[in-house]
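The passage that follows is intended for readers who have already worked through the single-chain material. We present the inputs for a multi-component assembly, then the predicted structure in tokenized form, and finally a short commentary. You are encouraged to pause after the input and sketch how you expect the pieces to fit together before reading on.
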Amino acid sequence: MPTITLSKKVVEKLVGKQLPLEELKDRIAMLGTDLEEIEGDNIHVQIFPNRPDLLSEQGFSRALSSFIGVKTGLRKYTVKQSNHKVIVDPSVTGIRPFTACAIVKGLHFDSETLRQLIQLQEKLHVTYGRKRKKAAIGIYPLEKITFPVTYKADLPHKIIFQPLDAEKEMTAAEILEEHTTGKEYGSLLQALPRYPFFIDARGEILSMPPIINSEKTGRVTAETTGVFIECSGFDFDVLSRCLNMIVTALADMNGEIYTVKLEYPEGTKVTPNLTSQKIKLDLSYLNKRLGLHLSEQEAGNLLERMGYGFERGEVSIPSYRADILHQVDLAEDIAIAYGYENFQEEIPNVATIGEEDAFEKFCKKIREILVGLQLLEIKNFHLTTKEDFTTKMNLSEELIPLKNALGDHNYLRNAILPSLLKTLAENQHHEYPHNIFEIGRIFTPSAEEDTGVRERETLGIVLCHEKTDFTEIKQVVTALLHSLGLEFKINEITHPSFIIGRVGAIIIDGEQIGMIGEFHPQVLMNWEVMVPAVGLELDLEKVFGLIK
Amino acid sequence: MDNKSIIAKLHPLERQVLPILPHTTELAAIAKKGKLKEIEVMRALQWLENKNLLTLETTKKKVVFLDREGQRYQKEGLPEKIFLDVLSDEFKGLNIITKKSKLSRQEVDACIGLLKRKDAIEITKEEQQLQVRITDKGMKLRQERTAEDRFLEQQFPLDIERIEDVKEKLAFEELKKRKGILRIEDIKSVHATLTILGREISMYNLEGEVINRVTTGMLQTGSWKEKTFREYDVEAAVPQKYPGKKHFENEAIEYIKSIWLEMGFKEMTGKYVQSAFWDLDALFTPQDHPAREMQDTFYVEGKAKLPEIWTKVKETHENGANTGSIGWKYSFSKEETEQLLLRTHTTVLSAQRLSQLKKEDLPAKFFAVGKVFRNEALDWKHLFEFYQVEGIVIDPNANLKHLKGYLTQFYKKMGYPKVRMRPAYFPYTEPSLEVDVFHPIRKQWVELGGAGIFRPEVVTPLLGFDCPVLAWGQGMGRIISEYWKITDIRDINNNDLKQIREMKRWLR
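Having made your guess, compare it with the prediction:
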């Protein structure tokens, strides 16, 4: 979630009211943003991904002002017509097919407002624009552009201009290879045969979206009074809404919004379109979901506190809101306006019968038996290093790897005893005996599972002290299985982790349910464990199946 | 207490040690004289000190031990001697010499350096190989018993203070520099000084039979009747005994489970390896949602088989299907949804459970306490696997107030009397809320997890019809760290046996 920094002074001016600090903090949190802190003039606040319209001082203040009741209801924005055109060339089809554009005039930038604009653009890029993939925004000083502008695509070596912060003209390919921004976002274009760009009537390249503007025509400064804005991407509605978030913010900086005609091959569109979508309020649905008994009037008032328009049962959704998919989204806003703190807890009179999972209950029993045998339970991670489960155990089995682990625990464990040996290795400075057990999952490939991975809850026990031996571990398994009313036998097997002649399979009704043995000194040495140890492993799901 | 009752309480070890004490005061010496183990003497001395019969004084001294190589050299001689022994006055290849000497490569390297400094050998290079021969000086050295040889011949461990002679000191310094020969340790030396009372008691005849343990034999023969039972110091400390124990984290989990069971919830369990479909898509998380990016989720190689309802979920993402929603309006990728991952939340279990329910099963309540995985590097406040407490209530009449009600009840039983809800955002709930509890001691609100009512876009495809589903996924780490005062979250799973043994129990 992005954190933005807002100027408290600017916010207060835009809100139209100054709140005491504690109240301000509380209101910001209850509005549905996560306040990090207020230090001096800086408000640091996290904006949830569903509210990109709050990513500017203007958008944020607009919402807060309604919320605290200063200026409620749908904000009206005047959009004037301009005759400026953007021609969308068929060459962008399949490349980056859409753009939505606007013009805003009458602006007076200073370093503070420029900071606000840049922050809005950047944060929109990261969130709503999904790192420029879904939407990229370009803002240009109007006086440097000659209309009509054309949005087209061409071969990378044919696109040549001087990008922002560069000394000289570069080809598109050079920009992707050498320019900082080019390197950062280059992957969005690299695979394409042609790269998209905006070019004006004089043949000046304005920008190559979603990478960078031109130094000559694409740098907004304190002298700029009018701007041309374009959003480019893959979904016209998304771009249109993104554009609305920017133009309304600029309008709240006293700018005047003007339309741009977009000449698509299939027909003309005009943006920005600030008309509200309307949705019928389903009052009983909302009341039911929230447990409230609001009248239509009350619901309407609450919606107006969230910046909606409301008239005769119909809700007007602000054109910059991107998150209203369904009635429930109105329910949430009504709940926020009503105040989450005002919902009283209630336990309904609904009779249901509690039930513990039978296998979990069984595991609890196993734990109790083992605790009675004076064993200590440990809990290791399911993610592990390969070495611990192969070379250290004298084994060479395949483990299921993770594709992208950040740390060095990048495999799923396929056995439990190595985890217990690890614990032994790490506890040699503590008093012996180290008689321990663990119940946890192990993972093996299996074509029968939907996921291709079989997970088995497994018990591991290890006894480690000077005098331990096979007899002692066999006593433990005998006590455990007899407590469960199970008779078993042990068949001698060989296993690289154990001493030959001191390892066996635990068998019930002809099926192997586990193994038991004395660890090979080489294995103990691999772990640098200097005290003898014996262990056993039981497939608890098989055991559970037997007692059911 | 008179002398007689003091004597009656003396342990056999004390009786053996006391008569030695007027003449010998040092622990090791007492043990030697009394033919006892040092640990036994130490115990006796401590008991006697408790009885005010003596005072103990512990001083530290440095003692030299023979290390692994040192022990070998003591038997076989120093490697430079062995090396010299296999040389002759003609040049021989180093490989042959090494083989003959049976020394390791490292030892040979060390020998060459050392002997070169002493002019005991001469070296040339021929055909890429070092050639070595002994010099006259070397011949002499071979015969000589050096200070180093003499040093090693002593009895170890050796009190460092006893190394006085200058030559001996030089030899010691030389050997100390070499790897694996000597080991110097701080040894505590214990001296006992009898008090006046102790001196008096030590004059008594302390022999004669006293009974330490009642034996079966005594009981069978009745021989105990003629014997005196030693009186114990019942106030004395005894060695620690550790019970078998569940892991403390599981104790807390069992308690949490018991609360939900009391409240009429059924338990859900499920797999750790899940498809993106169940973990994310079934929960209406758009496929380009930032939370799906690689860095948050562990992906596993392979492709999942999808359940039939996947097409309904796809449609809902794309255009809302029959849910009354407009959907996310993008084209849903099958490949993306088939990806395998380690579940990032237990909400995946809620989604799966919803898909199994029928109308006649409602109302129903479920909970899970289970592991979830996040692709994070391990540090003091991040684990890559940890527990989440999950709950859902599927009830046609459920509402936001009930959600607060269930969570308030739960947290009351966890020891937090008040619950607060704050607006939050999750793609699968609406309203979405953050749950804070009031910390009764710190007097502040603490964030414990997310909650909300599942969106119709989640419920309808899974359940087949829309119905309010209250849902929450709460963290457990905070509660556990808080209860056991754990400041580094890694300590929950570091399996320090001492910590697990000594940890207090979950007492709620």
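Commentary: Residues 250-502 of chain B form a domain with the BirA Bifunctional Protein; domain 2 fold (CATH 3.30.930.10). Chain B touches chain A through 101 residues (CB under 8 Å). How closely did your sketch match?
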